[in-house]
């Protein structure tokens, strides 16, 4: 069994120029030895079989050192046997075995004694259903049917009648070549050999199939007279046989492979029939020649779908063009931007609101990635590199979203131009989406001694004993839940401020942190730690002090919509201090069933005398339209002390809550307490409130229920093709299989929108595939939930789809089934969570745009980064094959450290691309050099190329300004390879980093 191992490092020759016929150029090359010691006499061997005890042919067996560096590898033979006869030296070893369509298997670490023969057998379980195809080919001479060696094969995928280069490989000594991991589609295969006429064929690739190709090449009757030959030696002048030698042509600064060969027993190679041109050779020594040099690229693209009514759409071609900029008559896009003449186009426009806007731009960049500079109201906001498009037609249009939001006034000018050298893309329409309203505080009404500073436009002398204040009327387009923030200056960080919304105090006193100075350039942005409810149209916001100390000086107000509240949605009464969210059900506790001493207070109309020694109680019946997980909020009065309250839901105690005391015992003093955990409710429910048998409970007024997650009973769905309902567990069994058993359920939702879907399941082996149709359209993915710990209902887990789905208002049909061969997991209840409401009148960005990240992830993109741009330490390096940072973690604790600049302190989602091909990988994150490291275990990916990459989501807290984020390992194991990353604002309030993954 031969072993593939780099014996010599890759080396490159000088340039050989052929400018006339009958030239014979000699290019000798010395190869530097690879610094690998051999563990003499040792070998590792064994068998690799599948779960049915059948041998697996061509399984890849990789030998790793203690740092998970690849030492060498081998392949199994027809009997599933491998034999690593030459073992490079290492203190510790591990073996990983992989095979297409199988789950990898890894040994424990082990040591090798002198001349030890280690036997390691492996069982590879079935992996996910193959999502790729393969092209396997052989090239022969058309006249004599001999194998044609050293051909260069170019693979193009045909997309919209345009060819896109996917990979390049070479034919081996048997004339064979292979392209693997190909997505389905039509491919163009171009075969080039110096001594033959080129051949071109078209082949279709299908999922999970090997497309076989046989190509016959016609030998040229006329041949070029020049040749390039040489001897490959090592640094000791020892000849190297069987070294790989590739001939490259240098053409317009491009290095193009044109032929391939190996050295003979005397280290000689020879390329004949060489046309005029400049050439180099590259060479290295391996034991087995690999003919698969797939070149798979991956691009992280911002999501280009913006969903809101706050739109402005402008045609850039209608702007003022200058320099070489003109309108392209074929596309009606503006072209000629940038270049040496630096053509430009300027858009002058009016808006209805000041604010922070997301800017999305239609563009065409047919040949290369192109640079685009943007000025907003005379200030440059940076250079953006827009990825190239597939062609120059309108159908090839993409949409680029500027990563940072831009601040715009009522009257604005945006200028698009180049870098003075390169051509910028063609531009079509631009879309402005209002993400954050900005209101000018200086337009507010001052009272009680508050003063406007005309220079800084800040409001001073708020608060104090006279309680200076300012009120401002703001107008918003949606009734909803908002984040409220304001610019401020605070000299000592101990200045309190209170806020009233539409005449109701928020119930909190806010004390923003100290600013570094007292000039306008030192101003910071303070965001309230909770949301506020605003009405459609006018709202009055008042800022005041605590009646004693002076408040901070205030600047502009920033209002950001989080959730639209439908006009039919009831809200918490005005006397409540804390809003429980968008309540959809309101119940008055006084209508419940009272027991023991419980009674209705004639002063407040609340239920009083709950709890105590007699343990008075009240029970209310709730009839709901949908089963699901609900947020429960309770209006209460507890005038003298914090008071306990126990709650039973449908006969099950859900715990004791301590409700904070209120300022008095009047209705105006009432607060609203929201349970920290969601409660699961069905259509008909009973909730009981009572005490601990000793202490008095708070007096209770109204109860508010907000539906957080719909729950639908899959047991009520329609079964077909052999699927069966288990009456005990209420799980659906025998989904999938050869009959493709299925179940569909009709779900009814109150909003057209983007939803998260999850399902309860049992999977014995974690290898059961499932497919899903939404309203008779397949999602395009095959899902394989991880194995559950057992097979009883108590072992059931919740599997969440790694992407969102769109549902219509009202009824939607969801179907679960298999892939036609294997059985799917057993399925239970379906959980559906609304992420974003889609307004039917909302315009959308053109359909041509695409995204590789989930919709909810890319909607509010703020910042983009890449791990390869960080500071690399501890041996971390960039893998040139996939442009990811590799060798993170390990005993040297390789790391990459990014510096990120944040405009506003807060909680952010960090999305990242990673690869962990052989085992679950440990990742640690160190933020701003704090003493705390956050640790995560990222699941193994299905392979080691970018096509198998996964996305992780980590919730982190960042400060305003510069932040450092260090990614490293646990000091022992290798961390995953990392690449592009994006930071987004977070709608939630977790303070500790939380990990999710797709």
UniProtKB/TrEMBL annotation:
GO terms for molecular function: carbohydrate binding. InterPro entries: Carb-bd-like_fold (IPR013784), CarboxyPept-like_regulatory (IPR008969). This is CBM6 domain-containing protein. It holds the Pfam family CarboxypepD_reg.
């Amino acid at each position: 069994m031969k072993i593939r191992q780099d014996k010599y490092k890759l080396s490159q020759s000088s340039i050989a120029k052929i400018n006339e016929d009958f030239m014979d150029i000699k290019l000798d090359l010395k190869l530097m030895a690879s610094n690998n010691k051999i563990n003499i006499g040792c070998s590792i061997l064994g068998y690799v079989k599948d779960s049915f005890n059948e041998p697996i042919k061509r399984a890849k067996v990789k030998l790793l050192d203690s740092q998970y560096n690849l030492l060498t590898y081998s392949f199994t033979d027809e009997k599933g046997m491998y034999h690593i006869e030459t073992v490079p030296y290492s203190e510790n070893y591990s073996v990983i075995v992989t095979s297409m369509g199988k789950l990898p298997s890894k040994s424990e670490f082990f040591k090798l004694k002198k001349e030890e023969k280690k036997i390691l057998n492996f069982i590879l379980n079935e992996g996910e259903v193959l999502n790729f195809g393969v092209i396997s080919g052989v090239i022969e001479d058309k006249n004599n049917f001999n194998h044609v060696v050293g051909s260069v094969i170019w693979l193009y995928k045909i997309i919209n009648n345009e060819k896109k280069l996917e990979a390049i490989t070479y034919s081996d000594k048997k004339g064979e070549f292979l392209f693997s991991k190909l997505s389905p589609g039509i491919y163009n295969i171009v075969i080039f050999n110096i001594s033959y006429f080129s051949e071109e064929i078209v082949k279709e690739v299908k999922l999970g199939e090997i497309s076989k190709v046989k190509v016959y090449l016609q030998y040229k009757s006329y041949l070029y007279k020049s040749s390039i030959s040489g001897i490959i030696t090592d640094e000791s002048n020892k000849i190297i046989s069987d070294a790989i030698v590739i001939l490259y042509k240098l053409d317009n600064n491009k290095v193009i492979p044109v032929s391939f060969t190996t050295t003979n027993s005397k280290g000689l190679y020879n390329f004949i029939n060489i046309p005029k041109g400049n050439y180099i050779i590259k060479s290295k020594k391996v034991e087995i020649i690999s003919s698969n040099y797939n070149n798979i690229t991956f691009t992280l693209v911002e999501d280009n779908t913006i969903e809101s009514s706050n739109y402005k759409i402008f045609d850039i071609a209608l702007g003022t063009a200058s320099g070489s900029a003109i309108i392209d008559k074929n596309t009606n896009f503006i072209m000629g931007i940038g270049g040496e003449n630096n053509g430009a186009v300027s858009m002058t426009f009016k808006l209805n609101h000041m604010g922070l806007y997301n800017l999305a731009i239609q563009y065409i960049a047919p040949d290369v990635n192109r640079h685009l500079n943007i000025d907003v109201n005379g200030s440059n906001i940076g250079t953006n590199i827009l990825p190239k498009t597939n062609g120059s037609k309108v159908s090839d249009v993409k949409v680029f979203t500027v990563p940072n939001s831009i601040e715009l006034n009522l009257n604005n000018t945006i200028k698009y131009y180049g870098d003075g050298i390169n051509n910028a893309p063609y531009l079509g329409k631009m879309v402005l989406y209002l993400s954050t309203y900005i209101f000018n505080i200086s337009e507010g009404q001052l009272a009680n001694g508050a003063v406007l500073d005309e220079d800084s436009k800040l409001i001073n002398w708020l608060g104090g004993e006279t309680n200076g204040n300012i009120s401002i009327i703001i107008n918003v387009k949606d009734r909803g839940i908002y984040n409220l923030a304001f610019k401020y200056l605070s000299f000592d960080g101990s200045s309190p401020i209170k806020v009233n919304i539409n005449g109701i105090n928020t119930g909190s006193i806010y004390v923003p942190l100290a600013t570094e100075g007292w000039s306008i350039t030192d101003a910071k942005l303070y965001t309230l730690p909770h949301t506020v409810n605003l009405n459609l149209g006018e709202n009055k916001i008042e800022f005041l002090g605590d009646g004693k100390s002076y408040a901070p000086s205030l600047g502009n107000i920033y209002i950001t919509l989080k959730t639209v509240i439908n006009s039919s949605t009831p809200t918490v009464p005005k006397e409540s201090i804390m809003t429980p969210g968008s309540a959809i059900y309101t119940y008055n506790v006084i209508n419940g069933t009272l027991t023991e001493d419980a009674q209705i207070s004639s002063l407040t109309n609340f239920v009083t005398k709950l709890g105590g020694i007699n343990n008075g109680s009240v029970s209310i019946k709730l009839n709901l339209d949908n089963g699901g997980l609900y947020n429960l909020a309770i209006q209460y009065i507890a005038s003298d002390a914090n008071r306990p309250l126990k709650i039973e839901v449908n006969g099950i105690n859900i715990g004791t809550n301590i409700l904070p005391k209120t300022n008095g015992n009047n209705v105006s003093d009432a607060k609203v307490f929201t349970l920290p955990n969601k409660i699961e409710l069905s259509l008909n429910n009973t909730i009981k409130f009572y005490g601990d048998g000793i202490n008095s409970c708070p007096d209770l007024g109204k109860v508010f229920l907000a539906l957080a997650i719909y729950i639908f009973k899959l047991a009520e769905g329609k079964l077909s093709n052999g699927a069966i309902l288990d009456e005990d567990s209420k799980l659906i069994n025998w989904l999938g299989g050869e009959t493709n058993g299925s179940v569909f359920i009709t779900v009814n939702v109150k909003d057209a929108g983007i939803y998260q879907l999850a399902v309860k399941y049992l999977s014995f082996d974690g290898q059961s595939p499932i497919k899903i149709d939404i309203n008779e359209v397949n999602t395009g993915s095959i899902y394989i939930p991880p194995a559950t710990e057992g097979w009883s209902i108590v072992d059931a887990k919740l599997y969440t789809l790694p992407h969102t789905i769109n549902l219509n208002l009202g009824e939607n049909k969801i179907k679960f089934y298999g892939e036609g061969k294997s059985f799917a997991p057993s399925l239970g209840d379906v959980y559906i969570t609304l992420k974003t409401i889609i307004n039917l009148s909302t315009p959308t960005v053109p359909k041509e745009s695409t995204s590789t990240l989930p919709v909810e992830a890319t909607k509010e993109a703020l910042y983009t980064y890449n791990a390869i741009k960080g500071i690399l330490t501890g041996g971390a390096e960039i893998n040139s094959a996939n442009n990811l940072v590799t060798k993170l973690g390990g005993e040297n604790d390789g790391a990459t450290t990014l510096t990120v600049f944040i405009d506003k302190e807060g909680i952010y989602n960090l999305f990242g691309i990673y690869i962990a091909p052989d085992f679950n990988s440990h990742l640690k994150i160190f933020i701003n050099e704090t003493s705390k490291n956050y640790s995560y275990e990222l699941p193994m990916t299905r392979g080691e190329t970018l096509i198998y990459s996964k996305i992780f989501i980590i919730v982190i807290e960042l400060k305003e300004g510069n932040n450092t984020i260090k990614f490293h390992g646990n000091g022992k194991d290798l961390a995953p390879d990392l690449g592009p990353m994006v930071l987004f604002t977070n709608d939630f309030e977790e303070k500790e980093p939380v990990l999710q993954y797709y």
